[in-house]
Design a protein that fits this description.
394 residues; Growth Hormone, Chain: A; two-stranded antiparallel ribbon; 19 helices; globular; single chain; mainly alpha
Amino acid sequence: MKFKTLPILLAFLLMGVADSMGPLSSQVSSNPFMAALMPFFVFIAFAIFSVPGGILAARIGKKNVLLLGLLLNTIATAVPAFMNPPFALLLACIFLLGIGTTLLQVAGNPIMRDVSEQGDYSRNLALAQGIKGVGSTTMTVLATAGISLAFLPVLQGMGWRGVFPIFFVLMALALFLVSILQVKETKADVPPSIGSSLALLGNPTFAMAVLGIFFYVGAEVCMGTFLKPAFEGYGFSPSSAAWAGPVAFLGSLTFGRIVAGSVKVSPRAFFRLSAFLGLLGLVLMMVGVKSLLIPAVICAGLGFANIWPMLFSITVEEKPEAANELSGLMCMAISGGALVPLLMGRIISSGLKEVDKAWVMTDSKAVMLAFIVPAACFAYLLLLSLKGGKSAKA
């Protein structure tokens, strides 16, 4: 591996900061609907800035877009790192983090080709996706479990804000390393436009795939946001709930990605298996048996792990010459992480009661019922996986 890939891999690692906003939200607000606003403002940015971000990268260069994303993320993490912001300002910072992470996603995948040796791009990109999963898990541990803050009493005293100085330092480091990186970028002959990208939605195959990404990301954010309070509703302590819920989910998700990146598999067959495992885990969550919760979370994590790369590769195989436009549309569909959790949060809210200015779970059935939202998303994905296509023989 070339040394110049390391700053890009660090950028992939730090994409996990945005993923940690869902699990962190339950510490900022005990109201599930209010908590869901935090990932909402992260992922709604993908709906707005993904396609324009791809066009910007074609015009000013992928490295410059990567730098812009890291700069926005550095500013976004600096505010809660150095002050206790009101909730409205916090949401503004999180929206800025969403914009920056969108730009990292848009520029990170193609620039990895530019910094890779010939023949190493696929391997490096698979490694980058695995590192992104490690980043999601690590940032979630930092944001929820707080074990890494035990040797820093000053950060512990900051409460939920204690993780943001760490985020800020890492973002600033990545910004510096990418700024001094020398990259010879490949240029597209005809840069994609908003019109050429959106026109692809007229093809039912592409429209269904984009909707699949929308539902997948929405379901993943639902898990990251509500697993901890759901486990607490079943009697787990806050610390145990963090480990058994979002940390276990993201850990199994990362493990699944690493395994898939090290073996040769049929994308369509693996897509079907992933959708089935994800749906099975979610159904087990809805059963409401405490002893099944952790196995259900692990099963779901393994199922969630490879939906994105499998569905993306299958879709691009349908029209490889439109890979740039399809990538923009897929990133735009990440906005499902903003909208789907709001529905799940509303259902969970029906089982809460405010006691001494704190929200307490009074109806565990509402938690079980709420998991029907990500389960419905995965039911669609399972049906989509059974659909034939040009690459069905893959």
